[in-house]
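Support case: user asked for a sample of complex input and structure output to validate their parser. Sending the pair below.
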Amino acid sequence: MQPAIRTENLGKTYLSGFLRRPFVGLEGLTLEVPAGVSFGFVGPNGAGKTTTIKILMGLQRATAGNAWIFGVPIDRPESRRSVGFMPERPYFYEHLTAWEFMDFYARLSEVPAAGRSARIEGLLSRVGLERFRNVPLRKYSKGMLQRAGIAQALVADPELVVLDEPMSGLDPLGRVLVRDIILEERKRGKTVFFSSHILSDVESICDRVAIVVAGALRGQGTLPELIGNAATTSEITFRGAVEVPGAEVVRQDADSRTVRVPCAEVGAVCGAVLAGGGTLVEVHRNTRTLEDVLLDEVERARLVNEKRLGVLA
Amino acid sequence: MSRIWTIATATFREAVRDKVLNSILFFAVLLLFLSLALREISIGDTEKVVRGVALGGVSLLAAVIAIFLGIGLVYKEIEKKTIYTLASKPIPRWQLLFGKYLGLWITLAAEVALLTLLYTVVVGAQQGLPGLPTYVSMGMLMVELSLLTAWATLFSTFAAPTTATAYTVSIYLIGHFADDLRLFGERADPGPFKTLLGVLYRVMPNLEVFNLRTEAVHGVAVRWSEVAWSSAYGLGYTAAVLCVAMLVFERRDFK
């Protein structure tokens, strides 16, 4: 089966200013998004996420490398035949009502006339905009526009849904809605590729993740592959005047104390607490999060950059 | 073809809901009515003065509408970032641009048809129904507007509206003074300036070939061969400018 997205050494160099100075927006990105997964594309601001998405969506041309969507080179418009896309901070025709707007994109995506109206009605109701179907988009709030944008991306029932920062600007209810839509689409066998700053959402809904920092890919894989399962330390909270030699006290409250110990010693420490007449309140494994991995990669990229600048100096 | 038509109808719908466009159209209608009053205050062949001013006013305001719509045709999509969802659809960019141009053309055709109808009613009520030359001159005005909007479309693919307006207005002015440009070139001393004028005359459109208003005002019989040649020239030139616009748009990055 063809991967939903494949890129090979994809790069983009912008020429900016009067002197046309080169600025590398993306460098040697080699990525594979298997079909049927939800794929999170994470990285700090200016990392190259939106640039990658714009290249894939035919909005910008790569200055290096190649990319394919379901095996079709992206320089051919047909590569986007089965793709639904919502850009970051979606902007739409303000003079159109939600229904006209959906109808416009449905026609452009060649959704057959039979069933087009039902599809539009269904999607507007799915994103909670059915009551506002005849309201011009200029009267919509930011969150409502985001919902309309997602409905638009799904109008042709695409095999691949590309969402650029779909959670930004949404209230908690809107975020849950987007999360549910992504999970539903994946359940239906569709591929969802999205970028996000909200790493907890990425952790909860993604099968695979790619991390991009300073225009370059820093890692990709499943969450366990990226984060690692091994926790090195645990935190034990207990009540009672029990001393735990060698343990780092993290918090001391009036009636409880929290200590940090190596994972290997959790059993021994818990035994000592109970033997000393104490009561265990909580044992928590300190596993790494996607945020830790991302921050490490940002730091690594900074050090590499400093080293490079040092060599140049 | 259906996608081109979808984009064209959406462009038409956007234009007719544009308040600025409707204001300009309102002024064109107002001018038509005001021209009637000239019969009372002018001397000589007053009916011709009315016809001349009314037709001239319609042409000028139609050109203003064409420039106003044309310069924002692509740029507005880029500036408002609506291009992101549009250009990411599986549509070749040339089709996208052609659809936008077609929508604009339909809007202009509707405006010119409306103004022609009003001219027929308003001037007709005062002077009797206008003859065939009036309608032919309106047809030629549409050819001129097609060409002018093609230039505006080209400029809107790479320039901001202010710059695009300056460029398009320059084309409009140069186009209407093309014969003077040729005469000036013929009389200039040989040298680089004469060559420049010669090149300008050949490259810039001659918009005066579409001006049949004098014939319409004076009721001169239509010379069909001239109309055919002018139309072919206008449509050929329009196609060439649109092709360049498509090439520019094809290479454009949307940041």
